[in-house]
Specification:
The structure is a homodimer. Chain A has eleven helices and five strands. By secondary structure, chain A is of the alpha+beta class. Chain A has a domain of 170 residues: NADH Oxidase (3-Layer(aba) Sandwich). A four-stranded antiparallel β-sheet of chain A has the order 1-2-4-3, covered by helices on one side. In chain A, helix 2 crosses helix 5. The longest helix of chain A is centred in the middle third of the chain and has 24 residues. Chain A starts with a helix and ends with a helix. Chains A and B meet through helix 1, helix 2, strand 1, helix 4 and helix 5 of A and helix 1, helix 2, strand 1, helix 4 and helix 5 of B. Strand 1 of chain A pairs parallel with strand 5 of chain B.
Amino acid sequence: MENEILRALHARKSVRVFTDQPVTAEEREAILQAAFQAPTAGNQQMYTILDITDPALKERMADLCDHQPFIAKAKLCLVFLADCRRWPRAYRAAGMEPRDPGPGDLLLALADTCIAAQNAVTAAESLGIGSCYIGDVLENAEAMRETLHLPAHVVPACMLVFGRPTSQQQERVKPARFREEAVVCENVYRDRTEEELREDFTLRGANVPEFQFDRYIQAFCKRKYESDFSREMSRSAGVYLKDFE
Amino acid sequence: MENEILRALHARKSVRVFTDQPVTAEEREAILQAAFQAPTAGNQQMYTILDITDPALKERMADLCDHQPFIAKAKLCLVFLADCRRWPRAYRAAGMEPRDPGPGDLLLALADTCIAAQNAVTAAESLGIGSCYIGDVLENAEAMRETLHLPAHVVPACMLVFGRPTSQQQERVKPARFREEAVVCENVYRDRTEEELREDFTLRGANVPEFQFDRYIQAFCKRKYESDFSREMSRSAGVYLKDFE
């Protein structure tokens, strides 16, 4: 099956180097409105989006998000916050005494927030604007809260940076995904056997020169999963979760 | 700004009543492939998708997800699981001894999962196939784990049901979203004042006959936030979170 939308969803890849061309006010508006139109549980829009326009604040975010200078060069920088605070405040304004938000409210708000963010990505793609998710926005909870004035029950879900891709970025090959059977099960969950896992990763790595499962996985584990930033992300996420206990 | 993709993102609304027309194997494939092509942290695809094809299991899911019979009538039913288990298993297969997954891994995987799910929604929309998110899949952790054979570190992020909308569903008016200033802040988080909150909700409710802030908010609070299913969702989510402490 093929159509313009499916082609765009397939073509979209992360862009980390941007041309000098700005994202216009009209484009920004189209990106935000597409986010608002995303599905949202009970029409609650359980998110707040910070539009980071202050250059010094962009630099600070680049630093707090695992020191990635390209973030500060983005033409549009949006922080997507899961917001479990707006509705309880409205309940109180209407004279109710609502319970404190719990883990379920957080997980539902995180879903709402990431669903809206992905609509922003797809809208940008339709306008020739590239994007990159910054998961590192989860790190450094204390400094992030102070920097972005985050109150309790408001948690960064993801950050998105936008800009037009340089020709080098346009030509970059999108990394291959897993084959379907590696990530889809019929009816119930089933672990991949070790043999299947090796084949899943090896097939995915078919375009990587001299791909070798053990070497690749060991390097990835050290560079990502056992890295300082990954450990920091889990510590920091734990700080946000404490609000919901 | 307008183009086919932006129009589709705006037009998409939840569909809960489906015609008898099936979702074909080719359409299912296009929906899944679009999900796989979604942005994913470090190209990890930290999700597993369960394709619920067994009618008895669909009935059970309809029951476990706050007793919503329309779920069992879906032509395609996908459970999106945040999967913090596949990569550590691969690490072990490669001879590593990885740390246990932490809260950061879960939040990153939840984002990955919902981002992929939203691509599935947009792909379906492009094919004339309606969809509905079922957040209630977060409830009843113990029964859900048993029913779907979920091991530790695998958490339902959302469920999606698909099918072609009946004409009644096509004609249903999509509920209005908040105005931009209600959900977007420049640079740092700022609470809406009580007055602003009242105006945000009242403007959103402009098409609701005789909308009145206090009455609407009080009813919503009782029906949703203080409901049994909402409390159950938080209890249940807490069960999943325990894996990541």
